[in-house]
Amino acid sequence: MEEKQFDAKSIIGYVLLLAIAFWFFYVNKPTEEELAAQKAKQEQVESAKQEIKQPLVEVAPKAAMDSLGKVAAYQQLGSFGYSQTLASANGGETVIENDVLRLKINNKGGYIKEAELKKFKTSDSIPVYLIKEGENASLGLTFNTRDNRVLDTRELFFDPTLQKVGDSQQLSMRLKVSATQYLEYAYTLKPNEYMLDFAVRSNGLEQVFDTSKEINLNWELEALSHAKSNSFENRYTKLYYEYEGGKDNNLGISDLKEKEVEDVSYVAFKQHFFSSILLTNTSFKKAKLVSENLIEDEDVDTLKLKKFTLKTPLVASSGNLNYDMNWYYGPTDYKILDGYDKNLDEVVDLGWGIFGMLNKYAFMPLFDFLNKFLPAGIAIILMTILVRLAMSPINFKQYLSQAKMKVLRPEINEVNEKYKDNAMKKQQETMAIYSKAGVNPMSGCIPALLQMPVFYALFSFFPMAIQLRQKAFMWVDDLSSYDIIAELPFKVPFYGDHISLLPIIASVAMFFNVQLTGSQAMQQTQQPGMPNMKFMMYLSPVFLLFFYNNFSSGLSLYYSVSYIITIGIVLVIKNFLLDEDKIHAQIEENKKKPKKQSKFKQRLQQAMQEAEKQQKIKKK
Fold this sequence. Notes:
Number of helices: 15
Helix content: 40-55%
Mean pLDDT: 80
Oligomer: single chain
């Protein structure tokens, strides 16, 4: 085979290629600045590599520290030192949520760190949190162990296990003594529910718990403000509870209230429109309840309203705990709470007795029906019209009585003047005039008394109607809070730092209503020791103006419409339905008829006559 020979041209070509390559590398060699930059970059890379390798280098020392830490944990916590050696003791949280509720449960303490209501916003358009970053709420068990330790679960770490069962999320938080011995908080959250199942159980701790001493459950919550006026919101923020198999009560709104109650089945930390409620299937045998007002100065204390506390001992059976409970974190909505069939509707303060019944069975269903196809503001107006029309027969009776009293006024004045020095005789003659005319002087009071339940029921209904929350109407941006047409550069005592228009309209309408309906009372001679009725009637509109400036604008809208409609009804009754001449003729006709007195009136008249005789004898 003939070998390939390199000629001179080939050699020259290779030399030229090498020369060109050397020239190319020489021309493109990095400058001193580029070399410095490359060196710095290389140093950064090496440093990053060292940082990545650092934990690996410290594995052995960390294991040694863990061993020492484990010994320290057992020395401090006894059997529960085991829980502090698990990975969960490094912290962390678990989130469970559905379409309406989002909860963060902290490894430390095993309790809810954050509770967000996903479908609600505050007055500042931020999410509504009943619990925020664990800053305003805590739940824990304090207990004694057989080795004479007192532990609080709020300071210990729980091991979380989350699983999905069907459409529900189940979270087990276990404070472990060993792999099979533990104290457990079990949470189960179902779809579209504000209510979640909650259980407190223990397994294998009968030799750990010192059951000769109480195992206390401690639940605390500082209610966060969600509305424009924290003082108005605080008025409806109370601690409610159910006890003795169905009775319910609350601690009121005082600055500090403590109470010990037995046989408690639920405790509700209720805010104006939102509530946190703990229910138990096994009643708490006794419970200490505390409500503390956190607002001393409304201008300074703007974040929190009240601090609520529940402290109750849990009873261990055979050395272990087994309590099935429920948590409710959600709106204070009557429909939702009533749907659980656990007497939770009592948390919604609709009034007591007949007032609450009127709201539950009349006004709430009526408003909900109207609000299905009408905006909230229009629904309030139409509801007010219907209520006033339904009350118009009572109004007619009241004004008819006033008209009769007006016709008899000259005769009554004559009697008052004739017997001004004889009160007994004056009373006898006045009653005789009423009897002959067939007029009952109390008939004007009865219609007014019949309207009082309606007045008070609606006074309770509108501020508590969550249906009005953040519903706009005309210039009002939120019917559940006050409206603002002007901000004041200063704060007026009992009035506030703003001007609301609806209370002004309601006050003006009330003033003219007083002029029409209170004329008879104003004309009456003031009796000694009795309040000046004319002054009281003029004071009422002023009181309404000041009192309702910080109240629910839905309530002020109701009063405004109600007084305007009442003025119209009164004018119609007085100008078209009542004829004073006919009333006078009827009274004169009644006087001619023989009157048969009832036995009660006969005895009353005899008693008055006897009293008059005794008075004359004393004078002699």
